[in-house]
Amino acid sequence: MLTETSKLEELIGRDYPHGFVTALDTDSVPVGLNEAMIRLISSKKEEPAFMLEWRLEAYRHWLTMSEPGWSTVHHPPIDYQGISYYSAPSSRKDGPQSLADVDPELLRTYEKLGVPLQEREMLAGVAVDAVFDSISVATTFKDKLGELGIIFCSFSEAVREHPELVRQYLGSVVPYTDNFFATLNSAVFSDGSFCYIPPGVRCPMELSTYFRINARNTGQFERTLIIADRGAYVSYLEGCTAPMRDENQLHAAVVELIALEGAQIKYATVQNWYPGDKEGKGGIYNFVTKRGDCRGDNAKISWTQVETGSAITWKYPSVILRGDNAVGEFYSVALTNHYQQADTGTKMIHLGKNTRSTILSKGISAGHGQNAYRGLVQVAKSAVGARNYTQCDSLLLGDRCAAHTFPYIVVKNRTAQVEHEASTSRIGEDQLFYCQSRGIAPEDAVSMIVNGFCKDVFKELPMEFAVEAQKLLGVSLEGSIG
Amino acid sequence: MLEISNLHVSIDDKPILRGLDLTVRAGEVHAIMGPNGSGKSTLAHVLAGRENYQVTAGEVFFAGRNLLELSPEERAREGIFLAFQYPVEIPGVANIYLLKAAVNALRKHRGEAELDAVDFLALVKDKLQLLGMEQSLLYRAVNQGFSGGEKKRNEILQMAVLEPKLAILDETDSGLDIDALKVVATGVNSMRSGERAIILVTHYQRLLDYIVPDYVHVLANGRIARSGGPALAMELETRGYGWIEEAASQEEARRLAGGGR
Fold first, then answer.
1. Which residue from A27, A56, A312, B150 lies 20 to 30 Å from A464 (Cα-Cα)?
2. How many CB atoms lie within 10 A of CB B242?
3. From residue A279, how far is each of A85, A368, B126 by CA, in Å?
């Protein structure tokens, strides 16, 4: 037993490969949070009055709230007055109009990360709205998308250029009163992505955004809003990685998805933020609120996530199945290694008739990792014929990690069918030895077994993302044998 | 090919093998028999490199190399194959994927190019036919939901594809009905060659009706108590293991009393 544990520890003891800090002049505001700070953020972003008012209402509400204490995660208290709430690369002042105007240091960072910001993305068919710290510095393919009436831009730009859309939809899925972190985000959100697909339009390419946290002591508060109008379709990819650093960084994003009648939104995430070192020092706190609303009949929203980074992950991408025959899906792989903690899952709220939801959650715990699935399947009285299928599988590596499952099921309509399956297994010495006795190195065997465990989720990812996700799992788990 | 001398092995400080000697040459088939708990499976696993078995004394040389210094995967790459008595299930990993990873690990070690999907499939299909196995079995998760017979045949399939120099079959006959046993035996017999050695670990003589060994050894008290030809297996079938165990105990008592004579 002991030998097995120490062997697995060697295998999974790999260092974070994206650890570097780029030297960039940043335009940060002083630390601390008050009304004046919110006014400053809003004025720096040249926002209309309604936006400032919304932020202030959120802030005032936030003051009445306290941090939630119900999850399994543990962390030292966060000093919300010790955080700088706005940061943007200084080159923004001059307003980069093209890649030539962008700080070359920034471009090099993206290159190191393999972000396809230049010619490559055209070949790959990916439009990238790159968020570096809090502000979008480059948007590509905008013209091409514009021809179809698709709006894909930074959130700040949307607030200025399309205030009527922002006003109509912002906070309509995640109201500013929703929860402590979402409310904080509503008050201070820095930037993010905005996407609107007009009726009947199928977005011809995968939309993607790369987030990267780089400024010291800067909490990141993205805001993403995606609207698929009647009969529209969009697939959105979000991928993240961050440089190595010592302090904990708070990240509280909000993502709102709205699918009108017959519309479909697929939202995929590969999250690889700095998880902290082997002793659990440093790392990102990722407290995210993601929710989709199937607002019309026959709408469909799918969340797919691969969570391997962050010291703490706290997120529950959810779907409100409001329209009749609406479909909600949640596919998740969450990996915790060393001292990482994850409390993640989903909520499927069935309101419409014949609504269907599928939940497939794969949790992998290694080292001292803590992994919790927390899910709610709620079937309202109105949801005649609702169906849900839930499968939660946990995989343990070694004997110091833990997996927890908290499935909540509330059914108020007797025609509903709800299924829940769960399993817990471990990569045993037996499986490793079996692979080794066939000539396969143990780190390849671990990678093979873990990828096999996650296969059902990976096949929901777009092809190029699936490859990235497999590599990421490999990187997060493998290590050279001592 | 394989030289085992004075091998002592303990599990959790309990001695299991106590001075085992065995020489296996290329082209030979050896059957290791013995009652339950005599150390047959321990021997098989020690040769494959299982970790929690402590080798307290003795030497094992394989093709001139000190086997005990090699990791399990290195042993496999050098040409040792263990067919498991209880093959492990690996959910989510397709059988063909494991097989391909194994073949290419071995080829890489030999400095050969990795096989592409087409060539690999051609290689495997041949062997499938030989073992009367369905191709669909390749795409199922490794051993998951396999019947006992399918698991054993899958082990033989892996052996046939990997073409080891030394194949060790650990109780491959256990739990097989007579038809499955014949299929497995056909597979093993097709692997017999002048360059390959095979060690059959078995409790029953039944398997040896179909795979006729060159040598039969009986393990008792952690040593080889008796060696002979196929006739020895027949004798065991009628007389059981008791008389050999008894003789082995008496011999050990004599040895201890004789004080290192």
1. A312
2. 10
3. 28, 10, 52
Task: Pick from A212-221, A271-280, A388-397, B131-140 the range whose average pLDDT is largest.
Answer: A388-397
pLDDT tens-digit profile of B120-142?
888 899 888 888 888 888 999 99
Contacts of A4 in chain B (CB under 8 A): 51
Minimal CA separation from A3 to chain B, in Å: 8
Distance CA A130, CA A138 (A): 6
ipTM of the complex: 0.93
Q: Which residues pair with A409 in a beta bridge?
A: A377
Residue A243, number of CB atoms within 10 A of its CB? 18
Q: Is residue B139 classed as helix, strand or coil in its secondary structure? A: helix
Q: Is B113 helix (H, G, I), strand (E, B) or coil?
A: coil
Q: What is the pLDDT of residues A403-436, one digit of tens each?
A: 899 999 999 999 999 999 998 888 878 899 999 9
Q: What residues form DSSP beta bridges with B142?
A: B90
Q: How far apart are CA A189 and CA A25, in angstroms?
A: 21
Q: How far apart are CA A132 and CA A112, in angstroms?
A: 14
Residues from A in contact with B at Cβ < 8 Å: 3-4, 7, 425, 428-431, 433-442, 444, 448-449, 451-456
The pTM (predicted TM-score) of the whole model is 0.77
DSSP string for residues in A281-339:
-SEEEEEEEEEEEE-STT-EEEEEEEE---SEEEE--EEEE-STT-EEEEEEEEEE-TT
Residue type, A183: T
Greater model confidence, A249 or A401: A401
| pLDDT value for A2 | 37
- List, in order, residues 6 or more apart from B184 with CB less than 8 Å away: B131, B152, B153, B156, B172, B173, B176
Residues whose CB is less than 8 angstroms from the CB of residue A18 and which lie 6 or more positions away in sequence, other chains included: A112, A113, A241, A242, A243, A244, A272, A274
